[in-house]
Design brief:
three-stranded mixed sheet, elongated, 3 domains, 17 helices, alpha/beta, OB fold (Dihydrolipoamide Acetyltransferase, E2P)
């Protein structure tokens, strides 16, 4: 931007470079530009220029892949061609290195106008029709692995995501002020036919609607999913002093015995018998709830899903999710949830672990813990830690295990 505004002067080492890069203020942006440089500065054929583009953009090579050797061959050809065109050897080598570095973001110039138009349209729609645009944006990511990042982005605009509810959620994302209710289509394990039926026969007001009303019947798989993510709150049948003490109680009675409860003649009688015989072993643990939510919804919202005692401790110490890590200072105290643990060894044969973790937005982060076997960690438990961040190594625990604490 500074170059384009004239605040930084632009100089070109060779007329051919100026011809290829002047329109973009001396920066490589388009794939066509590296092809033009190879043709006009290095004198390569158009066919070789296109091959260079392909092998430069390739990031991963297999043992049987000839692309890597082809890249080296074309690199020599490019540098030799530049030198033959009166461009110094050291500068030619630096220019090729610059091309390699640029390969991670280059795109087709032919696409740039289309990208610009779409970007402008999205910006205009978001400005003038924010709610409609957000619903469309979220719907486009239903079932997509990128959904967690989209949710994180939308939260930055002040929105809060509310957990799904059988009566408040629909087959699309519902926005009420700054609250967004999950679309039932965004939940794994919910079939389209089942969702259509749930939406059609809302509201669900009693246990009769959930179990015994044939018209409103919800299939077992969908009801099990709704139970695991706590999506029956508005029915007002789960909680202290209600028909079911907690969701595990509901699961053990209803989900495990749904066929018996839907018996045309003895269903209600079977329910009464099961309730009277039930031995309460307590609700699902915090770890079990987090695991189910992560697997089914792909996102964890501390406000809605972590135990109040855990939330209170996080608030007490003003600790935020790893999603909000302070990358400017490269060090921060954050909380995260451990999903998997991988034990590795250094070249010096010392053990360390890579923790695959998530924050409240469901985005995954790897954290390295040096001099550890991983035995001190529990899956789907909540931890706080003082983390370091390095552009090359990523996240690692500051000064060892003493800076990690389990809180839930």
């Amino acid at each position: 931007m500074a170059k384009r505004a004239g605040k930084i002067s632009i100089t070109f080492d060779h007329p051919a470079i100026e011809e290829c890069l002047k329109d973009t203020s001396g920066e490589m942006i388009y794939q066509e530009q590296i092809m033009a440089l190879a043709h006009k500065l290095a004198g390569m054929s158009l066919s070789d220029c296109d091959t260079l583009r392909k092998v430069i953009l390739k990031r991963v090579f297999t043992t049987k892949d000839s692309s890597q050797s082809k890249r080296e061959e074309l690199k020599i050809q490019f540098i030799d061609g530049c030198v033959a065109n009166n461009y110094p050897l050291e500068k030619a080598q630096a220019l090729f290195k610059q091309i390699e570095n640029a390969a991670g973001y280059l795109f087709n110039r032919s696409h740039s106008i289309a990208y610009s138009i779409i970007s402008y349209q999205c910006a205009w729609l978001f400005t003038h029709y924010e709610e409609e645009w957000l619903r469309a944006y979220l719907s486009n990511k239903d079932g997509d692995d990128k959904k967690a990042k989209v949710i994180s982005e939308i939260k930055s605009y002040g929105y809060k995501f509310k957990k799904p509810d059988i009566n408040l959620s629909s087959d699309s994302w519902h926005i009420d002020g700054k609250n967004i209710y999950f679309s039932l289509n965004a939940i794994k394990g919910m079939g389209k036919a089942a969702i259509c039926n749930i939406v059609k026969y809302k509201p669900y007001e009693t246990i009769n609607d959930i179990i015994f009303n044939k018209e409103k019947a919800i299939n077992k798989k969908s009801l099990e999913t709704l139970t695991k993510i706590g999506a029956l709150d508005s029915v007002n049948i789960i909680g202290e002093g209600k028909a079911f003490k907690h969701y595990k109680h509901f699961y053990d009675i209803v989900i495990e015995n749904l066929a018996k409860l839907r018996h045309p003649k003895r269903g209600k009688e079977n329910l009464e018998k099961l309730l009277s015989e039930y031995i309460d072993m307590g609700d699902w643990s915090s770890k079990e709830k987090i695991q189910m939510l992560s697997e089914i919804m792909g996102t964890i919202d501390a406000e809605n899903f972590l135990d109040e005692s855990v939330q209170a401790r996080l608030r007490e110490y003003n600790i935020h999710s790893i999603d909000d890590f302070n990358y400017e200072t490269k060090q921060d105290i954050v909380w995260f949830i451990v999903k998997t643990i991988s034990v590795r060894k250094t070249k010096m044969n010392k053990e360390y672990v890579i923790l695959n973790t998530i924050g409240e937005n469901g985005i995954e982060y790897n954290i390295k813990q040096w001099n550890s076997s991983g035995s001190e960690f529990n899956l789907f438990a909540v931890y706080t830690a003082r983390l370091d961040f390095d552009d090359e190594w990523g996240f690692s625990v500051t000064h060892g295990s003493k800076n990690i604490m389990k809180i839930g």
